[in-house]
């Protein structure tokens, strides 16, 4: 099977996963996607493939911007404000890594994002369901 065929298959599976995912799973997919793009950017940077590096850093940045922009500071309070600041910091470091071709900055962002992803994985199922119900109810109240 060609690489093109494999990539098309992966995209089809991703679309299906997104369509069937709850908000918790979508966030987890975004966190993992950002980590993957950072790893790909690191590899491209080490191989001096500048176009690929730029593409992957851009994609990782876009994911983190999305995560930042979906925070609800009114509901999340101080925790959401801290996450917003952390995401801002990561975006700045990704931009610096791109401009300076600095693998260490990519590693720094990865080291900040990994514990968030790991903590997200550890959320109990009951808490996920409760949060989803509360979110749905607040949207219905509007």
UniProtKB/TrEMBL annotation:
Q: Name one GO cellular component term.
A: cytosol
Compartments where located? Cytoplasm, Cytosol
InterPro entries reported for this sequence: FliS (IPR003713), FliS_sf (IPR036584)
Provide one Gene Ontology biological process annotation. Answer: bacterial-type flagellum assembly
Keyword annotations for this protein, in alphabetical order, are:
Bacterial flagellum biogenesis, Cell projection, Chaperone, Cilium, Cytoplasm, Flagellum
Query: Does the record carry S-adenosyl-L-methionine as a key word?
Result: no
In terms of SUPFAM superfamilies, this protein maps to:
Flagellar export chaperone FliS
On the tree of life, the source organism's domain of life is: Bacteria
Q: Which PANTHER family match?
A: FLAGELLAR SECRETION CHAPERONE FLIS
Family that this chain belongs to: Belongs to the FliS family.
Name by which UniProt lists this protein: Flagellar secretion chaperone FliS
């Amino acid at each position: 099977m060609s690489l093109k065929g494999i990539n098309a298959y992966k995209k089809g599976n991703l679309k299906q996963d997104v369509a069937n995912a709850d908000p918790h799973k979508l966030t987890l997919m975004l966190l993992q996607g950002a980590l993957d793009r950072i790893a790909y950017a690191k590899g491209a940077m080490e191989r001096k493939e500048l176009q690929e590096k730029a593409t992957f850093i851009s994609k990782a940045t876009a994911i983190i911007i999305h995560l930042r922009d979906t925070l609800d500071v009114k509901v999340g309070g101080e925790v959401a404000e801290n996450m917003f600041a952390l995401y801002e910091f990561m975006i700045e470091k990704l931009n610096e890594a791109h401009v300076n071709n600095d693998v260490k900055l990519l590693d720094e962002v990865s080291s900040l994002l990994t514990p968030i992803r790991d903590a997200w994985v550890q959320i109990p199922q009951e808490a996920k369901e409760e949060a989803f119900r509360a979110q749905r109810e607040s949207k219905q109240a509007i």
